[in-house]
Amino acid sequence: MRLRSPALLLTLALLFPAAAASQVPAYITQWGTQGSGNGQFDFPEGVAVDGSGAVFVADNLNNRIQVFSAGGAYLAQWGTYGSGSGQLSGPYGVAVDPNGRVYVADTYNHRVQVFGSDGTYLTQWGGYGGAIGQFNKPMGVAVGHNGYVYVADYLNHRVQAFTAGGAFVTAWGTRGTGDGQFDCPVGVAVGLSGGVCVTDNLNHRVQVFTAGGGFLRKWGTFGTAAGQFSGPSGVAVDGSGLVYVADGYNDRIQVFRGDGSYLTQWGASGEGSGEFDRPLFLALDASDAVYVADTRNHRIQVFGSVPVAARSTSWGRIKTLYR
Asked: What is the mean pLDDT of the chain?
């Protein structure tokens, strides 16, 4: 039996509103104001959540890492301005591995530094340059399930991968617009399947690679429509393979399925709850709640997970059921 009448589809839209309009996560909370005190920020950039729910924020112009509870209670901080071990200069990306080690893209020192969850300095690698293992403004950092640390090497237009101790593993990318090329990559995230998602900032797209750098797929063009980008930066992948992208200059978060098909979005320019002013990085916790570094509003905003109906329901699926 094949029923395709417009009246029936309209009825289905009323019965299943999630199919007619994608649902978005609920706003939960926020914290932060501009300043240098405990719990204040001066352009927060990277954000990461560990297995216990602690939230690590790269407080860029305060040259420090701050740590909070999942609800935003201030817990700790470390870092001062400088180039010595444990000092920072404009940190951007931050990631936490399953053992609690915290990896910081110490951007203007052109290195990655590694700390214990309590801020104890452990090691570092990098240095300014274009050679293997060197950086020119490292931005995003992510830890794969293979234990490798992936770094978006911004002005070298490539991604580099290292062991947890900093030994070089592989690198890929050159400047350009072709598949596997970049124009200033910013964010990097690794899914459960091992695929590496990279926000190709000035090409206004997301590219996906194998763990070793083999090109898989891409999506996005410049613009403001659903699925388009203006300077995408942070990226995260949830347990079901959904890809979350901080669409910075469009002041919104967009969510895609693993194949790049558009799912939903939220946000608009402003200072209110759920609004953004240059959301640059984001992270997910174990329940897929979304933590957004609302950079020019100098705060962290937290949202619930994408509703199940938005994840699983589509017009194609509903129409198939009624054919």
From this structure: 91
Closest CA to 233 of 295, 179, 281, 169: 281
Banded pLDDT at 22 (limits 50, 70, 90): low
- Specify whether the CB–CB gap between 76 and 69 falls below 8 A: no
Q: Do 53 and 71 form a contact (C-beta atoms < 8 A)?
A: no
Region 24-51: mean pLDDT is 97
Beta carbons within 8 Å of 321's beta carbon, 6+ residues apart: none
Predicted confidence (pLDDT) at residue 17 exceeds the cutoff of 60: no
pLDDT grade, residue 312 (50/70/90)? Answer: low
**CA angle at 318 for the pair 304 and 265, rounded to the nearest 5°:** 30
Rounded Cα gap, residues 222 and 21, in angstroms? 23
Nearest of 204, 209, 188 to residue 105 by alpha carbon: 188
Encoded tokens for 90: 């404009």
In one-letter notation, the amino acid at residue 63 is N
Q: pTM for the complete prediction?
A: 0.90
Instruction: Report whether 104 contacts 57 (CB < 8 A).
Output: no
Alpha carbon of residue 269 to chain centroid? 19
Q: How far apart are the first and last CA of the chain?
A: 6
